[in-house]
Design brief:
Elements lengths: L3 H6 L5 E5 L6 H10 L16 E5 L16 H8 L3 E7 L1 H14 L3 E10 L7 H11 L3 E3 L1 H5 L7
Parallel strand pairs: 1-2, 3-4, 4-5
Helix pairs in contact: 4-5
């Protein structure tokens, strides 16, 4: 968790998403509860100064896997002048997949941090299928360490 502060040192904007009613499937609810009861941020996580928090899935009647779905994320990114996004998180086969596909559909050059994602695998192969879909739509896969080293991921 200490590595997130390095993103601030590189002057890269950082955002975290939260979903109060996210992942309503029983298997994913159990999975997330096993990681962080109540789905709060892990106790040791240090968010860099200026971190943007994006709340999604704020209604119990509607799931929202994408960080773009019913949020102001696209507006914020455009206001900041963002052209590229690097995405990591849980779960590869749900939130990461939907956020990456929505990012690409909005015209952002999108990188998936391959060592900063993990699939739920509600069905065998879900993670691989999600990875293939993101690659097929144009996402590039890079390592989080490369981002920390300040590598330029321009296509």
């Amino acid at each position: 968790y200490d590595r997130t502060s390095r993103l601030g040192e590189l002057e890269l904007p950082v955002l975290y998403t939260t979903g109060e009613f996210d992942e309503a499937l029983p298997s994913t609810v159990r999975y997330y509860q096993s990681l962080t009861p109540g789905a709060e941020f892990a106790p040791g996580l240090r968010l860099p100064e200026g971190t943007w928090l994006v709340s999604k899935a704020t209604s119990p009647s509607r799931e929202a896997y994408s960080a773009f779905e019913r949020t102001d994320l696209d507006h914020r990114l455009k206001g900041f002048g963002a052209k590229r996004l690097s995405v990591g998180g849980l779960a590869t086969d749900y939130c990461v997949l939907r956020t990456v596909l929505d990012s690409l559909a909005r015209g952002y050059v999108t990188f998936v941090l391959e060592d900063a994602i993990r699939a739920v695998e509600a069905n065998p192969g879900d993670g691989e299928n999600a990875t293939a879909a993101m690659q097929r739509d144009g996402a590039a896969f890079v390592r989080y360490e490369d981002l920390l080293e300040g590598d330029d991921f321009s296509p």
